[in-house]
Description:
The complex is a heterotrimer. By secondary structure, chain A is α/β, with parallel strands linked by helices. Chain A has helices at 13-33, 39-44, 52-73, 89-106, 110-118, 122-149, 159-163, 167-193, 212-230, 243-250, 258-267, 280-285, 317-329, 341-350, 360-372, 382-385; strands at residues 87-88, 153-155, 254-256, 272-276, 292-293, 309-313, 335-338, 353-354, 378-379. Chain A has 2 domains: 13-237, no CATH class; 244-385, Rhodanese-like domain (Oxidized Rhodanese, domain 1). Chain A contains 16 helices and 9 strands. Chain B has a domain at 106-176. Helix content of chain B is 68%, strand content 0%. Chain C has one domain: Up-down Bundle (Formate dehydrogenase/DMSO reductase fold). Helix content of chain C is 70%, strand content 0%. Chains in contact: A-B, A-C, B-C. At the A-B interface, helix 1, helix 2, helix 3, strand 1 and helix 4 of A face helix 1, helix 2, helix 4, helix 5 and helix 6 of B.
Amino acid sequence: xxxxxxxxxxxxxxxxxxxxxxxxxxxxxxxxxxxxxxxxxxxxxxxxxxxxxxxxxxxxxxxxxxxxxxxxxxxxxxxxxxxxxxxxxxxxxxxxxxxxxxxxxxxxxxxxxxxxxxxxxxxxxxxxxxxxxxxxxxxxxxxxxxxxxxxxxxxxxxxxxxxxxxxxxxxxxxxxxxxxxxxxxxxxxxxxxxxxxxxxxxxxxxxxxxxxxxxxxxxxxxxxxxxxxxxxxxxxxxxxxxxxxxxxxxxxxxxxxxxxxxxxxxxxxxxxxxxxxxxxxxxxxxxxxxxxxxxxxxxxxxxxxxxxxxxxxxxxxxxxxxxxxxxxxxxxxxxxxxxxxxxxxxxxxxxxxxxxxxxxxxxxxxxxxxxxxxxxxxxxxxxxxxxxxxxxxxxxxxxxxxxxxxxxxxxxxxxx
Amino acid sequence: xxxxxxxxxxxxxxxxxxxxxxxxxxxxxxxxxxxxxxxxxxxxxxxxxxxxxxxxxxxxxxxxxxxxxxxxxxxxxxxxxxxxxxxxxxxxxxxxxxxxxxxxxxxxxxxxxxxxxxxxxxxxxxxxxxxxxxxxxxxxxxxxxxxxxxxxxxxxxxxxxxxxxxxxxxxxxxxx
Amino acid sequence: xxxxxxxxxxxxxxxxxxxxxxxxxxxxxxxxxxxxxxxxxxxxxxxxxxxxxxxxxxxxxxxxxxxxxxxxxxxxxxxxxxxxxxxxxxxxxxxxxxxxxxxxxxxxxxxxxxxxxxxxxxxxxxxxxxxxxxxxxxxxxxxxxxxxxxxxxxxxxxxxxxxxxxxxxxxxxxxxxxxxxxxxxxxxxxxxxxxxxxxxxxxxxxxxxxxxxxxxxxxxxxxxxxxxxxxxxxxxxxxxxxxxxxxxxxxxxxxxxxxxxxxxxxxxxxxxxxxxxxxxxxxxxxxxxxxxxxxxxxxxxxxxxxxxxxxxxxxxxxxxxxxxxxxxxxxxxxxxxxxxxxxxxxx
Lengths: 416, 176, 347
């Protein structure tokens, strides 16, 4: 049994929604318990009178961070499969500033406003109405902003990868930073309110006894130090390969029909990576729009996050099988082989043969798809005997605008 | 009628509430391989509402189209929509158990109800837009990304605290 | 000239699968609600001494709301009819084997029964009406002066309410072409779901009319205006815990029946197993478990249990949730039922 359970196919989309509801109940419950349904309590953070926002948020962060590290380190959780929101530095700082200002003005953030509305606060309900209004306006003006929204991309990157530091060191650093921040926050509260914090619930108050709260802080510190000692939490090279499962699975290597791939591209789906395994020379002559060129020799697990769907295309059947094995052994969950390779793509998508039995509707569809990728359908029996060598020039821009109009830069629904 | 006295119970110690919240977040990582969120649910709901009123307009708008999915299932069958349903339920339950259920407008003593509601509305609109620009709000970015050591999330957190502390002085009348 | 298509493009030859839209679930929900209101009203009329104040919410407001809800429900049913002008023909015959025929006659009988129940205590519930229409007082006196008539009205309400509630489920289960509906449990399931929504509705009304300070603040304005207009006596909140605990029992029975319903399907033929799969793990699983079971049954059950244990105050939430859940149950069962089929080939 491996986690994340959902990513390992333990349950489907429908059940995931039920899980979402249950997790949401827990989320809402603890937010309300913390007092985050109250705008004045939340806003007090920014006047140094009650630093609960900082304390709750960073305790939650270090709890989940150290917990996830330990579970990943013992091999229970595959850390690479936990979804990371891609980083776009400047938009995220600008968005953050806007959120910060909105926080002080409105008194809530989106999550806490739900709790506030649920506990009967009218201002929380009005805040939610404001969010809808803001989204409606943003929906109409977002198009010109798109260039900015996706500027300064760094991809899905973590602090350890960014600073080239071991994961455990960052874990310890965040834990220590949080503990120091808690101490500073308690000091600031004492300064502004002039009252001493209660001994039970504080980290710094005198007399010095080992209260449960201090035990918790100590546990975090220990977990942080452990993280430095224990090292890399990713499965990495020590991934366990279930050879039996792999061998049996080989017979079921999922082929993907060229027509299906064409549909995905036209729909602008962004949840898969198309990998072209041929030599750079062949790739240069022609490649399917959006394909990355990764020759088999240089194929490693870094090609994409492990939870990404991969579609492999090459003309060499043996190469495709090798690549499939390699990726499966690395723990990629969903790897497709383009059925028939580039030849199949040519015969079925670029220059599909429409026989006399093909209905007019299908011919129209085939030709639309073919034209989208710069080809033409072949009709009549005569030409079917001798297919012409296609001129395989990479279409620079799609000749027909896709229906959804979303085949633009890589987009992902945000994690929030 | 039973007479439950309406004395709101004190909130939990922030460290323990945060610990509970962290465990919920951890369970989301372990079970789902993703974190918590909030603002995405409102975007999905907005997109679905626009789609219900003006289908052609919603489909031609790439911002909405992204949240409408491929049309094979309802856009409201979304992870965050169901999670936020749970947030409402959990928040209500906790508030009821803590005797904190009350219809009122929360504000400082120096501000009238009308301006407070106007500010709440403005703040909500600003935060919704900010969350779209930053690809997440305090739950999806700060909390989730913070625990995952996501570069963008930590940059985002700097932005939030920076922005809030920078303007807090000008809005002090609302709260104190 | 009418050209008759006799190939498979004729929808009557190849059936369209989703022919029922919102009208049928609305009708089934309101029908169940009215059935529940009638049973509660009937029993209250039977067991309570006249002039007890608790009688007002159950025996007067309940049936009055029931009359309105029934009319709304029948209107939505009428909207669903293919041949609206032929509706009168239902009342020219009685077919013992047709649930549709039973239903149309039951619906006709429900009106006078509900009216009798409402009229019995109407003058004291809404004095403003009584002073304007003195006839109401006469009718009320006439009914209350005859214990046998009161007994008869109570019994009729209870029996008709049960028949109506069960009939809303049987209506589905007799349609053999949809495997998901092939269950005798549907009748009682809808009956108890209807009872729970009815109890929740009355409980909600009581919560709204609790002494000021205990009721939700937004109700104050509405209620004071309403009270002035009707000169109504305040309702007796003593009935609230009774209704809440009754609602809990109904919900418990409902959830057991729901379990039986699914269990019956899972242990039946492959076709029925697959039909139940629509709700258990299939495309209807998330709304079913979250909206019907989670928000519609488990959450109100928990809240009402806490209310009864005096842990939390009475709120409108459980009553709204139960009614929402009852409606969602019907929408999802009607929709999922139409998606279930005997032969996957027809898919």
